[in-house]
Amino acid sequence: MKTEVITFANNKGGSGKTTTCSNVAYCLADKGKKVLMIDGDMQMNLSLSFLGEDEVLSLAQSDNNLYTAILSEKDMSDTIIRTPYENLDLVPSSMLMSGIEEELFKKGGREDVFEKVISEVRESGEYDYIVIDTPPTIGLWDRNVLHVTDHVVIPVEASPWGLFGLASMVSFIKEAEKKNPALGILGIVLTRVNVRKNYFRQTEEFLSDMKEIYVFDTVIRNDSMVEWAQDNSKPVTAYRRNARSAEEYRKLTDEILTRL
What we know:
Elements: E1 4-8, H1 17-30, E2 35-39, H2 45-48, H3 53-60, H4 66-72, E3 81-82, E4 88-91, H5 100-105, H6 113-124, E5 129-133, H7 140-146, E6 151-157, H8 166-177, E7 184-191, H9 198-208, H10 224-231, H11 236-239, H12 244-259
Parallel strand pairs: 1-5, 1-6, 2-4, 2-5, 6-7
Antiparallel strand pairs: 3-4
Helix pairs in contact: 1-12
């Protein structure tokens, strides 16, 4: 089976991107799929979703994280660590990723540096899925990620400002498709939903007009259990399996697998 690369992206912060990424990754692993997560954000929240703060900070300051691999343009195999969960590995991030745009700009073939870093792991076939969390930006680093991506999932917060920037995100992905014809938008998933609010329906109606982009049937509603899980460095799907949001993430993962 070919290793599929799924990237979770949105240039607007607060979209629930990292939470969606971490829980889908866990659900895939829970189904017996071998999954590698790559934390591409300097905030390191994907790493913090699986490891304690002290360990994440130690990895961020070491020579074995995503930033050091990109800087040296070396295969990232040595940066992979095991999480406490079966079938689920992680390439941790670093706070120094805040400067990755400048570092990439200095390099030759600056749009393809990440391809060198990920290619050996991707081509090894060791993983069924590589799942990448990106920062809420549009830039050179994001372009690097999209050039090795097969499918993009765009989490969108169901709020008055949730759709802000969506058009530019879609345009950015379409532009990257010229370099990577295998790239495509798998779908948009609505997050942080309050079904009693009018703007949820307004957001649904707006997205339904985007005929060329699939909108997942599964929506992720607000659930305080997510914050409790994050406080314990766990995805909610592992922390409280019977939580409402955990069930929704499992349904979303099934829908993603159906789409794939």
